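Subgroup meeting minutes
Present: P.N., E.W., G.H.
Scribe: E.W.

1. P.N. recapped why we're keeping a running log of single-chain structure predictions: easier to compare across weeks, and new members can see raw inputs and outputs side by side.
2. G.H. added today's entry (485 aa).
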Amino acid sequence: MEKLNQNTAPLFEALKKNVEDGVIPFHVPGHKKGKGAGELVEYLGEKVFQIDLNGMEDLDNICNPISVIKQAERLLAQLYGADDSFFLVNGTTQGVQAMILYACGPGDEIIIPRNAHKSTIGAMILSGAIPVYVQPEINYDLGIAMGMSVDSVKEAIRNHPRAKAVFVINPTYYGAVSNLKEICRIAHENNMLVLADEAHGAHLPFCDELPVSAMEAGADMSAVSLHKTGGSMTQSSALFIRESDKVNSNRVKSVLNLTQTTSASYVLMASIDMARKQLALRGRELVSNALELARYARQKINEIEGLYAFGKELVGSPGVYDFDETKLSIYVRQLGMSGYEMESVLRKEYNIQIELSDFYNIMAIITFGDRKEDVERLIEALKDIARKRGVKSKPNCNLVPCKTEMIVRPRDAFYSPKRSVKLEEAVGEISGEMIMAYPPGIPVICPGERITHEVVEYVQALKEEETQLQGTEDPFINYIKVLDM
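Output recorded in log:
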């Protein structure tokens, strides 16, 4: 393939030309380039509304791109070492579901880590595929799930030789990375596709000191949240593919169009185009600076008594082949606090919002959008909290992600008759709903799985911590729908 000029932004430039030409809009959206947006345009400014346009000849169409969107997608694909790419305006959820819909039909098996995002369960319901769950390795000291071991993937393939694909998270929310190159090799030897959820890996190709990206490792398809660590706007992502006798870009486009809006946001797509240009021109510098900042923060936090910012030292432990150091995860239990409490204190008393909290940890994501002075404020806030709290040597509460058993296929469970029961009375029932804390969006229980005492205890503990829970019809998670069998 010819080397493309990454110093261009074809879609963004087409949008600017449309604005500069003063085209009179008798088309949607109804705000008519901001003239009908009222108070909001006063706050956001006119420009964002002027490029909030719809598919037309000079701006191409996301459902069948042939001009400026296609050119922008080709540039993005080449930057990430893929054969083709597709802009996504419904986040990586859309990409994950498209990959599974592409690989699997009703009744097909797919090997998936049990700590996968809720979007994979949605894909099972949409496609009718059957998940073969692989239990990730658990770090009981930190209370979190890590990656899949190669041996566990081998065993799943051996027991399910007709599975269509292996699904991998690269990296996990906390930064753990599986041995993706080896998993790709084994899966391909067994005629299986490798699909990667790379929601938290948009930055990986731009620094040699970070784990390898899915495309570099040999995956067939990868869904990447450019908005998380690549600099584009929230909800904008991309799907990358490696063309082969089993992966065809035209069919991928057809699958995407099953769930893709016909009114894609040009603001979001322009942000992808410009984020790609910035990464192409300055990505290595920007990501290296972010990594250096994360390492600085980790070093300073580890000097604070009672806090532990874990990182590369975990490499070699179960489920951690490599580690993404830009995920600044901090174990806070020795201060006698849960991660949820630490998140609340940081926000309410120090005006700092972190990305994620759990029973034992908090996590801050460090990107090239961070500045050293902001990181210093986080470090100083943690110092102050540790000084006030003191080390309390509080033992872990022994609440770790629950192991569950699938009794009914997710799609069958979703469409089965259900009844509502109190959560505490649901032990032994088969769940008809998901329950998850968000973030990270990993289901505690999935449709079709047996509800155990451990699951109920875990959910009740989450509720006591006032965690953001979702997934059930009951917004307060006092009741759960179970199969009426």
